[in-house]
């Protein structure tokens, strides 16, 4: 008998895609849709809707359903400690997490994953279920970055890696060498909206999204989708560069089509070997 897969669902399209892929592979699914974050239509799946602080009810539900493996996926913003209102099990988990609750997102998620593992669960990456969701290196669109854009990508790699080293964010917008904005707690959509009012005359900038150095790749990989492309176009950007084999590309066909329609490039890069003057693959 195939054991069910548990999904702790935040917002966005990825949790539902994971559920559909698991079901298509013949695996039962048990969803926990986290209040305030999960915004999907789960009518076709068994779902428990619960606040994040109710760890006892969440873990009890998953255990009764026979879940041993959990995917933690979807967009979320960290709640304040006072708003968690943890139940007894939540308080125990919070005590295990300790000071990591006040660290960056990767540090917090590592601590949460470790606490769930101590509870007897195995944490599985979303891309282990959605095996084609991490693009290989190469140009994904008809439009390619020019020399100015490639220089901005190189600058963006340096900036995002510096951010990631202190567990702050996974993205930055660079235009003509100027850093228009960096991603922190607000997320990519808000970053792009903010940068729309900061753009300079001349060639548009680029959004660079990378995995943080040393990041646990089971958790919170950078994600781009049609909404990211729309935000980049509204911000007047020339394109988006993402880390190959490290960025979740939501609904690839629709995302690439949106970029082509907007005249943006979408380039998957190996940041360790990216060269400003190298011809685009």
- CATH domain class of the largest domain: Alpha Beta
Which blocks of ≥5 consecutive residues have pLDDT under 50? none
Output the number of helix runs.
10
Question: What CATH architecture label of the largest domain applies?
Answer: 3-Layer(aba) Sandwich
CATH superfamily placement of the largest domain: LpxI C-terminal catalytic domain
Content of β-strand: 15-25%
Strand order of the largest sheet: 6-13-11-9-7-8
The helix fraction, in percent, is 25-40%
| Separation, N- and C-terminal Cα atoms | 45 Å
Describe this structure in words.
Pfam families: LpxI_C, LpxI_N. It is a single chain. The protein is α/β, with parallel strands linked by helices. The chain folds into two domains: 5-129, Rossmann fold; 138-269, Cytidine Deaminase, domain 2 (3-Layer(aba) Sandwich), CATH 3.40.140. It is 36% helix and 19% strand. The chain is built from ten helices and 13 strands. The longest helix has 19 residues, at 147-165. The model has no long low-confidence stretch (mean pLDDT 90).
Write the layout of secondary structure elements.
Blueprint: E1 5-9, H1 14-24, E2 29-34, E3 47-50, H2 55-64, E4 69-73, H3 81-84, H4 88-97, H5 105-118, E5 122-124, H6 126-129, E6 138-139, H7 147-165, E7 171-175, E8 178-182, H8 188-196, E9 206-209, E10 223-224, H9 226-234, E11 239-243, E12 248-249, H10 252-262, E13 265-269
Parallel strand pairs: 1-2, 1-4, 2-3, 4-5, 9-11, 10-12, 11-13
Antiparallel strand pairs: 6-13, 7-8, 7-9
GO molecular function: hydrolase activity
Domain LpxI N-terminal: 5-132
EC number: 3.6.1.54
């Amino acid at each position: 008998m195939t054991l069910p897969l548990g999904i702790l669902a935040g917002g966005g399209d990825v949790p539902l895609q994971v559920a559909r892929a698991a079901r298509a592979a013949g695996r039962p699914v048990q969803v926990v849709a986290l209040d305030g974050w999960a915004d999907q239509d789960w009518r076709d799946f068994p779902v428990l809707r619960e606040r994040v602080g109710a760890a006892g009810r969440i873990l009890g539900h998953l255990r009764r359903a026979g879940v041993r493996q959990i995917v933690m996926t979807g967009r979320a913003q960290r709640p304040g400690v006072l708003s968690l209102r943890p139940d007894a099990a939540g308080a125990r988990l919070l005590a295990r997490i300790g000071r990591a609750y006040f660290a960056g997102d990767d540090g917090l998620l590592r601590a949460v994953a470790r606490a769930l593992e101590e509870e007897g669960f195995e944490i599985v990456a979303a891309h282990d279920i959605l095996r084609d969701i991490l693009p290989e290196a190469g140009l994904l669109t008809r439009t390619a970055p020019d020399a100015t854009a490639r220089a901005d990508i190189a600058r963006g790699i340096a900036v995002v890696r510096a951010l990631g080293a202190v567990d702050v964010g996974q993205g930055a917008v660079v235009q003509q060498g100027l850093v228009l904005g960096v991603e922190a707690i607000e997320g990519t959509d808000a970053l792009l909206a903010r940068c729309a009012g900061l753009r300079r005359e001349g060639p548009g900038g680029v959004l660079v999204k990378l995995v943080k150095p040393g990041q646990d790749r089971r958790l919170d990989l950078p994600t781009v989708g049609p909404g990211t492309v729309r935000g980049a176009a509204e911000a007047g950007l020339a394109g988006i560069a993402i880390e190959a084999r490290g960025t979740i590309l939501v609904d690839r066909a629709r995302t690439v089509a949106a970029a082509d329609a907007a005249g943006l490039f979408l380039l998957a890069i190996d940041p360790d070997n990216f060269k400003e003057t190298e011809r685009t693959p």
